[in-house]
Design goal:
This protein is α+β, with helices and mostly antiparallel strands and 213 residues long. Helices cover 27% and strands 21% of the residues. The protein has helices at 48-57, 70-76, 91-104, 124-138, 200-210; strands at 26-32, 39-42, 81-86, 114-119, 146-151, 164-168, 171-175, 189-194.
């Protein structure tokens, strides 16, 4: 039976890099506890009460990140490579990504050495502004990580993408909505797939190269 990941809200993200083999595949739901509203990822479908609580919680304070997948964002803070592929990222979503990564970078040992984000050209200026703000913060780390953004997943260069994906080192994550579980409505994701074995890295790299044409 798949285990229910422990709750790890953004302010408690751990940043000690641990190299591990890809875990077994799991299907999980970003959610909150019915009784405590504590952020957690469930190994079963959430209750209507939990769905409603999470939806409301995500609108309480616009200065804080959406209650995304605590499992995903805590894992991000323990890897060296982060690739995000989501054609639907807008300025708000990029600010959420910025907030998670900037908060994690406050730790002494920030492990991420390479970040590549590929998205569409929707809300282009706001996406770029939030990305630049994030990059300026992360480039304060020593040694400086490699951080790149390409807004190339549009209808002319790469019109084929619907779902959202992330690679954390060699682990492939597949999201039914916004990458990182950052959509406020009910959504699920799967993790535990080998990005190299399922040839996702090849696809990502080809799309990345194509975006530079």
């Amino acid at each position: 039976m798949p285990r229910t990941p422990a709750s790890l809200p953004p302010q408690n993200l751990k940043t000690t890099p641990v190299l591990q083999k890809t875990p077994d595949p799991q299907l999980l739901w970003p959610s909150v506890c019915d009784e405590t509203c504590e952020t957690k990822d469930l190994s079963h479908a959430p209750s209507p009460t939990s769905i409603n609580l999470r939806y409301q919680k995500n609108y309480e304070d616009e200065t804080r990140p959406t209650q995304g997948s605590c499992n995903f964002w805590s894992t991000v803070m323990n890897v060296r490579k982060l690739y995000l592929m989501d054609a639907h990222i807008d300025g708000l979503t990029m600010r959420k990504i910025r907030d998670y990564l900037n908060e994690g970078s406050n730790a002494k040992d920030f492990p991420i050495k390479e970040i590549k984000i590929m998205c569409g050209s929707n809300d282009k200026d706001n996406v770029q502004a939030a990305f630049d703000d994030m990059k300026n913060k992360l480039m304060e780390k020593q040694p400086q990580p490699s951080i790149e953004l390409r807004q190339s997943l549009d209808k002319t260069k790469f019109p084929f993408l619907h779902d959202r994906f992330a690679v954390l080192d060699n682990e492939l994550w597949h999201f039914g909505a916004t990458v990182g579980g950052l959509h406020q409505s009910l959504n699920a994701y799967s993790r535990g797939w080998s990005a190299s074995e399922y040839r996702f890295i090849d696809m990502f790299n080809k799309a990345w190269e194509r975006s530079s044409d």
